[in-house]
Design goal:
The complex is a heterodimer.
Chain A lengths: L3 E14 L2 E7 L12 E4 L11 E4 L2 E3 L4 E7 L3 H7 L6 E8 L11 E7 L6 H10 L3 E8 L8 H4 L4 E6 L6 E2 L17 E5 L2 H13 L3 E5 L15 E4 L2 E4 L6 E3 L8
Parallel strand pairs in A: 8-9, 8-12, 9-10, 10-11, 12-13
Antiparallel strand pairs in A: 1-2, 1-7, 2-6, 3-4, 3-7, 5-6, 13-16, 14-15
Chain B lengths: L5 E3 L2 E3 L3 E3 L21 E3 L16 E4 L2 E4 L8 H12 L5 E3 L1 E2 L4 H12 L6 E5 L10 H4 L2 H14 L3 E5 L7 H10 L4 E4 L3 E4 L1 E2 L4 E2 L5 E5 L4 H12 L6 E4 L5 H9 L4 E4 L2 H4 L3 H15 L15
Parallel strand pairs in B: 3-4, 3-17, 4-7, 8-9, 9-10, 10-11, 11-16, 16-17
Antiparallel strand pairs in B: 1-2, 5-6, 6-15, 12-15, 13-14
The chains are: A mainly beta, B alpha/beta.
The complex binds flavin-adenine dinucleotide, flavin mononucleotide and FE2/S2 (inorganic) cluster (FES).
Chain lengths: ~260, ~300
């Protein structure tokens, strides 16, 4: 899979809520095949305190119109600065990077658990799972109603459930408090999760207890994003592995998580 | 068109642009981005006798115009390099130079002996300046007697070009440079990273698992330039200049201060194609300033 490094033109920056935006960019060349779970390294220029590129999961790709998009949550200086960019500006992108989620056999039942901006990789995944005839349930968690994004999109691919900490949408509590986990035999053959570490670990614990295959997408700090610096490692049963290269998607049994 | 070739202690480099150890993987990660054959040389990731897992995560902290790393020489060992990695990259038409490390002088000797056997590897970089390991590493490079001892010991078993990589974390870098020159080094490369720390104010914690790490990037360039200039005036052996080189102008500044060639480090993370841009930029500079050869740049800075 050849990676590209190219200046992309900003087509649109849209804020569905005040602290998150969807940025769409046009590639000057044909977009290489992007798999669900792949990410891009985006350069945020003209900012003396944002020195390195920033990694973001690829939200969606429109191959025909050469448009790639990202869902970005403002958490610091780089994500804030990128949100201020204007239509027509150029941004350098490197992608597709990292591995991707593995697909279950057709017909298998899938639960996708996402929190915060960790839901970004699940648009592409949901679409593929639908084509693959999988029965998909999305469970999206957040602090309050405004954090539960993309539900309309997800509902095209499966049932959408949610939890909020303040109870303003869906069930009240954390994702792992949701009633979907209360049944004796969880009706899933595969669970995917991406979001805050604590959430992924809690989901991983439930998967392990119920002997359900579980893949998570890690968001470690990265310097390069393409395997050159060894800064982004996570501990696995085979020693330290690069999250940007051997990951970001890992089966929880491969990780040395104490769950 | 200016001649980009540079001769360093008898070894010809097709141009003065090489990539710094630990910032370029084994080259393969950059295959998609440019033709590696264009490089003057490639210093591959630091290796040790036995495999090492390196330090715990987090190993990286972004800083103003730079970054701190505490990777700690994660590598699969010299045998793995020789048996698995080198065969995959040896077809490249550029100098592949291993960067070697050890906890003891004996470790360095054993690694150097193994690499000495491989005809097509023309040189070694002796890393006595890694700030991120508990034993060995920078400890060798911050005291003159130990820098001399390890250089001498490796010199005895290694008969090709020996480059010694110097630490900036010393009071007087020229003392160490003169010491390793006397001990038989063919060249010195400088600088390795500057020891630093990063603090997370909100969490009241150090950012790196090891607390201390090595600072790299444009933040260290003025210090690196100063050290290259000092060493150029103190020794006769050629210098690889390293530290915060982001573009051709930076590279030329290092050559003017006395470097015969340069290594591109952290810049590779931000622009994996930066080395080619630097090569082209040097060529352009030679033309604009009517130089016939890149050699004319070396030490040409007026005081
Ligand atoms: C593979 C991958 C995919 C990602 N996908 C998305 C995505 O689709 N959408 C999205 O919004 N974000 C995503 N992220 C996270 C995103 O990269 C960070 O939010 C971003 O780099 C923060 O940059 P900043 O300059 O705004 O924050 P900074 O100003 O650099 O940091 C602000 C604070 O957040 C902390 N911080 C920053 N990055 C991380 C991190 N990775 N882990 C833990 N703490 C951190 C810093 O230590 C600091 O305290 C992804 C990360 C990875 C590795
Ligand atoms: C992530 C990282 C890993 C490094 N690993 C090594 C190494 O294994 N051996 C070594 O001699 N230097 C290592 N270095 C130091 C660089 O080779 C270089 O000397 C230093 O980064 C300064 O150059 P720069 O500012 O251009 O990056 C490393 C630097 C970084 C940023
Ligand atoms: S971020 Fe550089 S190796 Fe993963």
């Amino acid at each position: 899979m050849a990676k590209i490094i190219k200046d992309h033109e900003v087509i649109e920056v849209r804020f569905p809520v005040s602290d998150s935006y969807i940025i769409s960019l046009r590639s000057p060349v044909e977009i290489p095949a992007v798999l669900p779970g792949n990410f891009a390294e985006i350069q945020i220029e003209n900012s003396s305190d944002v020195f390195l590129r920033r990694p973001f999961s690829i939200l969606d790709v429109d191959y025909e119109n050469r448009i790639i998009s990202f869902l970005i949550k403002i958490i610091g200086k780089g994500t804030k600065k990128l949100g201020e960019i204007r239509r027509g500006d150029k941004v350098s992108l490197i992608y597709p990077l990292g591995n991707s989620f593995s697909l279950p056999e057709p017909g298998k039942r899938v639960l996708i658990v996402g929190g915060g901006s960790g839901i970004a990789p699940f648009v592409q995944l949901g679409r593929i799972l639908k084509v693959n005839s999988n029965d998909v349930t999305f469970l999206i968690g957040g602090k309050s109603k405004k954090d539960i994004l993309l539900t309309a999109l997800f509902s095209e691919f499966g049932e959408v459930l949610s939890t909020t900490e303040d109870g303003s949408m869906g069930e009240k509590g954390f994702v792992t408090d949701h009633s979907v986990f209360k049944s004796e035999n969880l009706p899933f053959d595969r669970i995917y999760s991406c979001g805050p570490d604590a959430m992924m670990k809690a989901v991983g614990r439930i998967s392990k207890q119920n002997e359900i295959d579980c893949e998570v997408s890690l968001e470690n700090m990265m310097a390069c994003g393409f395997g050159a610096c060894l800064c982004c490692i996570t501990e696995t049963v085979e020693g330290n592995k690069r999250v940007c290269k051997e990951g970001p998607v890992f089966n929880i049994n491969y990780l040395k998580w104490e769950i | 068109m200016g001649d980009l070739r540079i001769n360093i202690s008898g070894l010809e480099f097709k141009n003065p642009v090489t990539t710094a150890s630990g910032t370029f993987g084994n080259g393969e990660e950059f295959d998609d981005f440019f033709d590696l054959n264009l490089l003057g040389g490639m210093f591959v990731k630091g290796m040790t006798l036995e495999p090492r897992e390196g330090n715990d995560y987090p190993r990286m902290a972004e800083t103003a115009s730079g970054m701190l790393n505490a990777v700690g020489l994660q590598n699969k060992g010299v045998d793995h390099f020789i048996d698995n990695i080198y065969p995959r990259i040896k077809h490249l038409d550029t100098h592949i130079i291993p960067n070697i490390n050890g906890s003891t002088v004996e470790d360095y000797i054993e690694v150097a002996e193994k690499l000495n056997e491989i005809d097509s590897i023309p040189a070694l970089e002796l890393n006595i300046s890694c700030p991120n390991v508990k034993a060995g590493g920078m400890l060798f490079g911050t005291s003159c007697p130990s820098a001399i001892a390890v250089t001498k010991a490796v010199r005895e078993v290694y008969n090709k070009m020996l480059i010694v990589k110097l630490s900036p974390n010393v009071t007087d870098i020229t003392e160490i440079a003169k010491g390793v020159e006397g001990a038989g080094a063919d060249s010195v490369s400088l600088i390795n990273t500057l020891l630093g720390i990063a603090v997370d104010a909100e969490k009241r914690k150090s950012v790196l698992s090891t607390v201390t790490g090595g600072l790299s990037g444009p933040a260290i360039k003025p210090v690196a330039l100063r050290m290259v200039w000092q060493v150029y005036n103190a020794v006769k052996i050629p210098i690889f200049g390293i530290g915060g080189i982001m573009n051709a102008t930076d590279a030329i500044e290092f050559m003017l201060a006395g470097a015969s060639a340069i290594q591109v480090g952290t810049a590779n993370f931000i622009d994996p194609q930066v080395s080619v841009k630097i090569i082209n930029g040097i060529e352009d500079y030679l033309e604009r300033h009517h130089f016939n050869s890149a050699n004319e740049l070396i030490g040409a800075m007026e005081g």
